[in-house]
Design goal:
The chain has 105 residues and is α/β, with parallel strands linked by helices. 44% of the residues lie in helices and 15% in strands. It has a single domain (3-101), classed as Pyruvate Kinase, Chain: A, domain 1 (3-Layer(aba) Sandwich), CATH 3.40.1380. It contains 4 helices and 3 strands, in the order ααβαβαβ. α1 (3-14) packs antiparallel against α3.
């Protein structure tokens, strides 16, 4: 199985939880799949609670899974103003995600 296939198998399992956002995430990750070199994903706002698929926070977890499966030096940088959100997010993601507390705007 190719590395990226592992991500898509996982994505197929969770996409139903994303509701209307599933198609957009799929399109975005398909685009990222076209890059052969390592990528950096920059996100404003981070995961604020575990299993928040419908809300405003699953992107960090999804991006983490993607760069972890790529295993090519890709990474995620996410910025959130909330100290509480940053603390929670750090418990949900791998060391491939740099979580920073700051104003991202």
């Amino acid at each position: 199985m190719k590395k990226k296939d592992e991500f898509w198998t996982w994505y197929d399992e969770v996409q139903g939880k994303l509701n209307h956002r599933a198609a957009t995430f799929r399109k975005m990750i398909e685009h990222l799949d076209t890059f052969e070199q390592p990528i950096t994903i920059v996100e404003t706002g981070c995961a604020r609670q575990k299993d928040a698929w419908l809300g405003d926070g699953c992107s960090t977890v999804l991006f983490d899974k993607y760069v972890t499966v790529r295993n090519d030096g890709s990474n995620v940088k996410t910025v959130d103003l909330s100290a509480q959100a940053v603390a929670v997010c750090k418990t949900l993601v791998s060391d491939k995600v740099e979580v920073v507390q700051s104003d991202s705007v």
